[in-house]
Predict the structure.
Amino acid sequence: MGHMPDINVSSKMAPSISMIDVGGQLLRTAVWRGDGKARPILFFNGIGANLEMVAPLGEMMRDRCDVIVFDMPGIGGSPSPIKPYRPSTVGKWANKILDYYGYDTVDVMGVSWGGGAAQQYARDYPDRAMSLVLLATSAGMVMVPGQIGAIRRMANPRRYIDPDYMIKNFEALYGDAVDDSSKGHTSRIMPPTKRGYMYQLIAMLGWTSVHFLPNLKQPTLIMSGDRDSIVPLANARILKSLIPRADLRIVRGGGHLFAVSRANQVVPIMSRFLDDHADDRLGGDN
C-alpha cells in the first residue's frame, strides 16, 4: 500500500489499530482511547481520507471519550473494495466494528462525504446513534453545488500524491488559508487506490437524505464554514430546515476543512453540544 504516514500528531497518545473483517471486507480501524466517561464518537471520514487525518480530533478528545474511525475500502490501509457498496453497507460495517470493540451506544460524527454516511447511520441505527454532528456536509443529491474550480481541482489525483500541488491549490480547493494546520493535513495524506476512490465516489451517486431527515430523532449539531468552496453554507441551512432537533453553527472564515484548520475553535463547541445531550433519549425533550 505504500508508505504509511505517521499516525500521531504528537507522542501523547497512539491509537489502537486493528484490521477487522466486516463480512469479507477488511477495514483498517483505529480507536483513540480517551480518559473521560463521555459516550464514544463514531467518526465517518471524508472521501479519499485515511484515518490519520482524524488524529487531531482523537488527540483533542482524549480527555472526554474514545474516538473510532476506519479507512474505507481502498483508502489508507484498507484493502481495495471487493465490490461496489452503498451508504447502508457502510453503516453495517460500522456496526460490526462497534461490536468488535464492545461499544454499545455512540455519538456519530461525519465530515463531507462522511456526513452523508453519518446521516444514513443515524437513520438505520437509532438505538445506537444517540447524537449526530454533521460537518461541512449536505443532504446528498439534493444539494447546492460548490465552485467549479474547487471541484475540478478536487478531482485531480495530484492532490493526493503531490504535496506541492496540494499546498499551491489548498485555498482554492478548500477555502482555507495555508498555515501550519494545512501543512500538517497534507503530511498525513495517503493516496487511495483508484478503485477505492471510484467506489467511494459512486457509493453516494443518487443518494439523498431529504426523505428521512424529518424523521431523525437525534439531537443534531450542524457546522459549516462560510468560505467552504466545495459544500457551500446553503447546504447546512437545508439540513437545519429538515432535521427537527438541529442546531446550526457557522464557522466564520472557515473553509471545507475547518474541523482541522479551526480545531481549537470547533472542538469545544462539539464537546459542549455532546455533553449537553449526554442524557437525552431519542424523541425526548431537549
